[in-house]
Specification:
Helices cover 63% and strands 12% of the residues. It has 171 residues and is of the alpha+beta class. A hairpin with a 5-residue loop joins β1 and β2.
């Protein structure tokens, strides 16, 4: 059951200056949400790259397999997969769990970890999309009311100047 917002204000009662300030604030919030959306999308793509790296680079490959190791997003160095000292153990990958911490996991667990991150970010992206849609609607409404008030002020100013000119010509 939805309840009306406690701080709801009838924007038609606001002055042009207040509407302009509200418009600027909504625009700033939209820019912030858009930036956040872009950053989350980039993080999601990085996690998908991690999944792809595990699937294509390590999973199912034997020791001494040549591969390129990423040092940055654009710098790779040649390397080979090391053969585990204990041949009974499966290969492991280092998974970046954030803030410079890495955890050793099996390739399957690494993929599962990154898939969870991708799914979590997808939910956050949907929430941001909804917020952006709501802010866009609010901004459009504020702009419409602002435009109407400015036109009304112009028309009132034009009528007043016509009356002043008519009185000056009569007197």
């Amino acid at each position: 059951m939805s309840q009306p917002a406690q701080n709801a204000v009838d924007i038609s009662t606001l002055s042009v200056q207040q509407l302009s300030a509200l418009q600027a604030r909504l625009t700033q919030e939209l820019e912030h949400l858009s930036t956040s959306y872009q950053r989350l999308r980039a993080a999601q793509l990085r996690f998908r790259d991690c999944i792809r790296s595990i699937q294509q680079g390590i999973q199912g490959k034997s020791g001494e397999t040549p591969l390129l190791i990423p040092l940055t997003t654009s710098l790779y160095v040649p390397g080979t997969l090391a053969t585990p000292a204990d041949s009974s153990s499966s290969s492991t990958v280092l998974v970046d769990v954030g803030t410079g911490f890495f955890v050793e996991k099996t390739p399957e667990d690494g993929i599962k970890f990154y898939t969870g991150k991708v799914d979590e970010l997808a939910k956050n992206l949907l929430e941001i999309e909804k917020a952006v849609g709501g802010k866009n609607d609010n901004l459009r409404i504020v702009e419409d009311v602002l435009r109407q008030k400015m036109l009304a002020e112009q028309q009132a100013g034009g009528s007043a100047s016509k009356q002043q000119r008519a009185q000056a010509s009569v007197g």
